């Protein structure tokens, strides 16, 4: 029977980030970390027009700088220098700029495959070992930790199990951890598009009666599109020819970047706000999308999960206790509760407000956008939320 101090179930961006956050301290303490992941990481980064991407807040940049990884990530991270927020067909709008906020960029957009490569190559195999490809079939609480049974029937005991296996976590269900789920009745249509004009680091959040639309800058003058529609309409948009799709997108977005000239593969993801009813148990932490899955339009989901991982890693390394102590895990969660509540609430309220076609609400949010652009304190608050700094001292 093998035993390790920490087993991270899910070696994606959140799980690998947590392993890197813990790596130096684990080396000093003689801890071993095992990452269990069903999909083997590629040996090298391969550029792709259709690569999925993530928006990293300025706060996430600060975390990766602390880990010594940002210089590498930034080689293929497109800075967001401006965010333009508008409501289709109405006069209200707001513009956030990095210059006004005194930061080099409000955020950054990078391909998930590139970020993954940077993380995986930074992990020290003397401290972090991989079980990959491998899946955990069963988790059993034992007196001083958890016993994991893998798909090859091998078993691994650990002081602390971190469940970071995604929003549809079967292990979360197996453990009897309930979720609070609220459907948005929408599907996120995800694709990369190329505009005729240079995006110049601009990100756009455009709200329409049929759902919000975000366009984020990527390298090579591509843009990452997140277009929220109801399920049947999203399916129609996925299946239509490229030229017809671009024409409909043009009508919804306008010509702020000129004509759209190319679109890649389109993907659709049904959207719900999902929160685990328990994020900690003795010797167990639920992390990432398994803990909270947010609407992607505000770009807050991964950034919140990264802040959770940073807070968890800091707490484990600050305490003079074995990983898995419930008191230690409770202090971690207490410390993150405000950030989680603010970020989830901000994302949910913005999504629901700007997805509602009721005329009175539409007028109110239009005036709100106008006021946001005219009132510096309100604009500052909104910008800090967007940059992932909302729960930190000014």
TrEMBL record:
Name recorded for this polypeptide: 2-octaprenyl-6-methoxyphenyl hydroxylase
Top-level taxonomy: Bacteria, Pseudomonadati, Pseudomonadota, Gammaproteobacteria, Pseudomonadales
Cofactor dependency: FAD
Pfam families listed in its UniProt record: FAD_binding_3
Gene expressing this chain: ubiH
Signal peptide positions (record): none
The FAD-binding domain, residue ranges: 4-319
Pathway: Cofactor biosynthesis; ubiquinone biosynthesis
Any GO MF annotation of the entry: oxidoreductase activity
Keywords linked to the UniProt accession: FAD, Flavoprotein, Membrane, Monooxygenase, Oxidoreductase, Transmembrane, Transmembrane helix
Record PANTHER family: 2-OCTAPRENYL-6-METHOXYPHENOL HYDROXYLASE, UBIQUINONE BIOSYNTHESIS MONOOXYGENASE COQ6, MITOCHONDRIAL
Residue stretches spanning the membrane: 6-26
Similarity field: Belongs to the UbiH/COQ6 family.
Domain of life: Bacteria
E.C. numbers: 1.14.13.-
């Amino acid at each position: 029977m093998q035993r390790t101090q920490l087993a991270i179930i899910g070696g994606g961006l959140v799980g690998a980030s947590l392993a890197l956050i813990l790596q130096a301290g684990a080396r000093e303490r003689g801890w071993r970390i095992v990452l269990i992941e069903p999909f083997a990481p590629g040996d090298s980064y391969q550029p792709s027009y259709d690569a999925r991407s993530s928006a990293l807040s300025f706060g996430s940049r600060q975390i990766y700088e602390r880990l010594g990884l940002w210089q590498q990530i930034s080689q293929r991270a497109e800075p967001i220098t401006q965010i333009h927020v508008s409501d289709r067909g109405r006069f209200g709008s707001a513009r956030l700029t990095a210059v006004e906020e005194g930061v080099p960029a409000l955020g950054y957009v990078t391909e998930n495959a590139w970020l993954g490569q940077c993380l995986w190559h930074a992990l020290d195999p003397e401290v972090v070992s991989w079980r990959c490809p491998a899946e955990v079939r069963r988790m059993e609480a034992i007196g001083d930790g958890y016993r994991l049974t893998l798909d090859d029937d091998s078993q691994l005991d650990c002081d602390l199990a971190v469940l970071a296996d995604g929003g549809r976590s079967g292990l979360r269900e197996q453990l009897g951890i309930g979720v609070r789920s609220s459907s948005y009745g929408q599907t996120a249509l995800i694709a990369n598009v190329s505009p005729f004009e240079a995006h110049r680091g601009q990100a756009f959040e455009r709200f329409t009666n049929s759902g919000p639309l975000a366009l984020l800058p990527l390298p090579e003058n591509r843009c990452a599109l997140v277009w929220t529609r109801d399920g049947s309409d999203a399916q129609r948009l996925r299946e239509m020819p490229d030229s017809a799709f671009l024409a409909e997108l043009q009508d919804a977005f306008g010509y702020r970047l000129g004509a759209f000239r190319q679109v890649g593969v389109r993907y659709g993801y049904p959207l719900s706000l999902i929160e685990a009813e328990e994020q900690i148990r003795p010797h167990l932490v639920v992390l990432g999308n398994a803990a909270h899955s947010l609407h992607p339009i505000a770009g807050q989901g991964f950034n919140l999960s990264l802040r959770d991982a940073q807070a968890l890693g800091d707490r484990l390394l600050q305490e003079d206790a074995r990983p898995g102590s419930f008191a230690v895990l409770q202090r971690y969660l207490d410390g993150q509760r405000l950030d989680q509540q603010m970020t989830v609430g901000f994302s949910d309220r913005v999504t629901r407000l700007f997805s509602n076609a009721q005329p009175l609400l539409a007028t109110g949010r239009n005036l709100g956008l106008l006021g946001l652009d005219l009132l510096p304190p309100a604009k500052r608050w909104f910008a800090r939320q967007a940059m992932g700094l909302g729960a930190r001292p000014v």
